[in-house]
Amino acid sequence: MSKLFVASEVFHGAGTLSELKNLTGKKAIIVTGGQSMKKSGTLDRAISYLTEAGLETAIFDGVEEDPSSATSLRGAAVMTDFQPDWIIGLGGCSAIDAAKMMWVFYEYPDANFEAMTQPFNVPTLRQKAKFIAIPSTSGTGTETTGLAVITDREKGVKYPIVSYELTPDIAIVDGEICATMPAHITSNTGLDALTHCVEAYVSNIENNYADALAKGGLEIVFENLEEAVKNPTNIIARQNMHDASFMGGLAFNNAWLGIVHSLSHQVGALYGVPHGASNAIFLPNVIRFNQTATIRYPDLAKLVGRDSAEGLAQEIEKLRVAVNNIGSLKAFGISKEDWQKNLDYMAQNALQDPCTGFNPRKPSLQDLKNLYNACYEGVIYEN
Fold this sequence. Notes:
CATH topology of the largest domain: Dehydroquinate synthase-like, alpha domain
CATH architecture of the largest domain: Up-down Bundle
Number of domains: 2
Distance between the termini: 36 Å
Strand order of the largest sheet: 1-8-5-4-2-3
Radius of gyration: 20 Å
CATH class of the largest domain: Mainly Alpha
CATH superfamily of the largest domain: Dehydroquinate synthase-like - alpha domain
Oligomer: single chain
């Protein structure tokens, strides 16, 4: 028997932020990042709707990119003082993921972070509050996943905290919210959504629902990402990308991911490479690596007019160029000396990453190092 994991309620379409006015409860805390939600007016609109619903509202802002466990603990302390019955993650993936971990520590102040880095080891939530995710970027799908990526600054490691307990109760997928998203973020996050669709489709978990969502999401990304990057006020393209992000998130919430994410987590933690950008660099070469272990890539290739794994990899590389994304890790200013110094450490952490267990081909440590080196140089990986 299988179970489909999805947010209890999903509101999607331009203007659906207004659904906040229909909440019932006493107190809500909004967790957000820097200034983008405030500058766009989205934060003020959210507060207005919550006030209309009769909820007292508090704000925890300033969540950094790649949030740390320390940030999660600080937010949980604020929640302990305020005692909300709704926690709202508003913004990009970092804000929503941080809010998820704040939720855990709010309900379980003595929870062991290291223990939760092991898959499906988050305690039962919803003892004090429920969770709403409102994404402002179209890529991570965190609004419908049981995943939060949290960084240990001291170790330089990104940990994917995996548990269906973290799946939001309500997701609001409103394309208007991301209308002011800069082009480079639109590009990065859109390629992240694409990666989710590809990895979910070829994972070692068979799931017909995830397959349909992954294929549909991939088609939407190829049809809309370039338009959303070049014409940011096109709300139809924005909403389509928001929907594709949700579809990719729902697909991998039920089929999980693979080594593209295992590899990306490490370069993000050590070098600050944007997650979607690193995914877009790794994805074509991981397709080339995995093609010996799965026959599923041609299914996706046919959706973009090709018929092979290599054809799919090439179309992704073309899209990456079309949306002005980078093709090598060294282009981010990482020196060869520093890269070689950290290579073993990154590969070892990638091997132990929870996503590696769902990859269609089991990699060795040397396989991961070879993939890292090919993607550092921006050259084609050869099996």
